Amino acid sequence: MFDRLAGCGATPGGGVERQCATAADGAARDVFEAALKSAGAETRTDVIGNQFGVFRLAGCEDAPLVMIGSHLDSQPKGGRFDGALGVAAAVCVGEALSATDDAGVTLAEALNAIGRHGTDRPPSLPACYLELHVEQGVSLETAGATIGVVTRNWGATKFDVVFQGEQAHTGPCPMPLRRDALLAASYLIVDARAIADRWPGVVHTSVGRLVVSPNSANVVPSETQLSLEIRSNDDGVLAQASALADQAIAKAAARANVTVAAVTRTERAIRTLPASVCDLVEDCSAAAGCKSLRLDTVAGHDAISLLGHCPTGLVFVPSVGGVAHNEGELTSKADVEAGFRVCLEAASRLCRSGGSPERALRLAREVAA
Amino acid sequence: MFDRLAGCGATPGGGVERQCATAADGAARDVFEAALKSAGAETRTDVIGNQFGVFRLAGCEDAPLVMIGSHLDSQPKGGRFDGALGVAAAVCVGEALSATDDAGVTLAEALNAIGRHGTDRPPSLPACYLELHVEQGVSLETAGATIGVVTRNWGATKFDVVFQGEQAHTGPCPMPLRRDALLAASYLIVDARAIADRWPGVVHTSVGRLVVSPNSANVVPSETQLSLEIRSNDDGVLAQASALADQAIAKAAARANVTVAAVTRTERAIRTLPASVCDLVEDCSAAAGCKSLRLDTVAGHDAISLLGHCPTGLVFVPSVGGVAHNEGELTSKADVEAGFRVCLEAASRLCRSGGSPERALRLAREVAA
Questions:
Q1: Which of A236, A296, A358, B312 has the most CB atoms around it within 10 Å of its CB?
Q2: Does the beta-carbon distance from B171 to A207 stay under 8 Å?
Q3: Which residues in chain B are closer than 8 Å to A209, comparing Cβ atoms?
Q4: CATH code of the domain occupying A2-153+274-368
Q5: What digits encode the pLDDT tens for the residues A34-61?
Q6: Cross-chain residue pair B171–A185, CB shorter than 8 Å
Q7: Where are the domains of chain A?
Q8: Residue B302 in 3-state DSSP?
């Protein structure tokens, strides 16, 4: 099934191009649904395109639900492991139905175009959620461990910034009169990198997206829209770095003689995952004969998004060289199999314990003792 | 006719959106052709879409040709005066037929789509070329003059630069390992501005166009393509500033740990326009009762592109506030009429002098004397 998914939107570079609600994503969703059906699951697609497969293992309708999942969509020219590895259910990581892409297409329109704008209600809130994902870093590889037990996520402040200047001719317009929105964006991007360099290893910053208008060689840009991220594993440092980013936005606008037309700021707190699920995964890893390592996740994952709703667990397997969001992403077959064995064991214990990670952990320890 | 052209691609902001070979450009070309035909001209469209109207005023086929022209296409959300004001023939300013836009569409394909991919041979080389254009600066307004007699153009070095980095996850990828092509572009944009600031009023620099790949908020950009311009009215300074730009490109790549995948460098020399045509325009301006001013053009114009082929003259009329490449561009009706009167008089004298500006000038002076 992994190989069939990797074939959906496969790129010549060995990766996948399967952004949400594109034709390639639709193909992967078809593969996923067919696999669920052939495995005997009841399938559901909800109003924002989430797909669920419900396996009824208990004899009653109101049994606690254990959910396992990850994402099917990819980065542009992304890797084939990222998300697809943990696939069992598509969990909401997207935006509201009113969100549009750069071409103004809403998610609802894009989902309709691939026939995945469903009407089903999602299943009930799970008693526990498990996710298998590739590490996207080098900690496991460095430690020689096969299984990562994620105990905490890095916090993040994400800024969407719009600078507004004024179109002018790049020739005759005197330099002091120019109101160059791209120059403002550039000042900010340079300053954002300097913020990371103040706290090596503790703060990560990036601007991954920048849209320039009108984007013509001999027109001074009148508008830029960019997405800036500040990430840290330290609450105090994250607050300081985010405040510096706020200042850098204002300073960049002032230096380039433009205005800050809009700033939206989204924060993701540093949070710890439930100790009971971590302990359970660690136990299952030991039972499978795998060396495990407790570690942070810098990236957000579905298991982090669901933290406020139910106990969640996040299991990492090694990424060769830490390569991520890149077609060259790779995880060895042996590591993939180890990750699946650990997840299978943890899910199996959870299902035999009414979905309670504490009970699943106790049960296993009793068996062991 | 000017108002009808302004209606082609008219924007709510009072400007026009009429980029080359779009539907709006096609509409303007139709207006232009219809106007030529109704005025009795023989019309031609050549293989790269240039349109010509030939008025046969002499009795013979091989009479010297006087050409008057400018451009019909506009900047994105540009002004309605820019180019359209001087329209009489579309003169080649474009790229080869193999050039493509950002969407990979060739000029030939785009011209075919609007039915303007002609096969006619252009008319013979003109004996003289005249162009009426808006100043796009404030020199005339400041001097209280109505007619600008352009004697020289600023030189320019134009760079198209491609930085190549490596896609990575903006979260876990350690900062020292990132190869961020957008960061490199930002260093260069900031340095390019600093180059202009070293020679105030003598050097203009801008990056008007920047394309980021893959342009996703949580992916470190792997490629940026940008267009950088350096302009100056001093040959020595232009050479120094261009050399600094070369260094800034290399330095930006090194700082961001990326490679310079491509640099193309196009140079436009500082050149003077023929004194005879300048004198003729000045004479005609005086005859029309207009105050004139000799000045440079910072922007390139068709009359500059044709300099190597025949004597050319470039006549400016004032731009209110110097606003250019912007929907708010404006030239007063009285100034437009003055510009037309001067051009009409100059063209009329040229036509009576076999197309020779020297003879046209002598003729007028003899009449005056």
A1: B312
A2: no
A3: 212, 215-217
A4: 3.40.630.10
A5: 888 877 678 888 777 777 777 765 555 6
A6: no
A7: 2-153+274-368, 155-268
A8: helix
